[in-house]
Amino acid sequence: MTEEFIRKSMKVAVYQHKEGTKASYYWKQGFKLLPNRLSIKDEEMTNVQHKGRNAMHKIVGQLLSTFRLDEESPLKQHKPYTCRTQIWQVPLYPLFIGYGTIGITNEQRKVKDTGDLIVLHSSDQWETIRIFYFAGMGNINYHEQVMRFLSSYVESGN
Known about the structure:
Blueprint: H1 3-9, E1 10-17, E2 24-30, E3 37-41, H2 53-56, E4 59-66, E5 82-88, E6 98-105, E7 111-121, E8 128-134, H3 140-155
Antiparallel strand pairs: 1-2, 1-8, 2-3, 3-4, 4-5, 5-6, 6-7, 7-8
């Protein structure tokens, strides 16, 4: 996978922390694939089983949200229109909050993984969070290349 391919695949959104709340963030600018309001917290908000990837990587937070009825997105497929991920630490890249793979509600009202990778970054103590979105790159084999690219991208002032 080339750097150019990663760059062209990347979508970026900025979410702003809502004053007076612990974990509410509202869309400010960028792509609009995720819900307008996200709950992003630096701890687990719901219980998760510590198996598989949850046992391999340290969970440093969670992103939870539900699409409103008037919102449109290819990720909004089945009631209750949930969108969520654990946020896992990337030890080699402490510049970032962490990464996750998007899960959405399926026909059985359970959350299924879309295979889409997100990487969260904040340079202002979580007041604004940039979400880098890479469709189809949730496979662990792509993470190192994406993280290396993003590290250079962010450090160059983008």
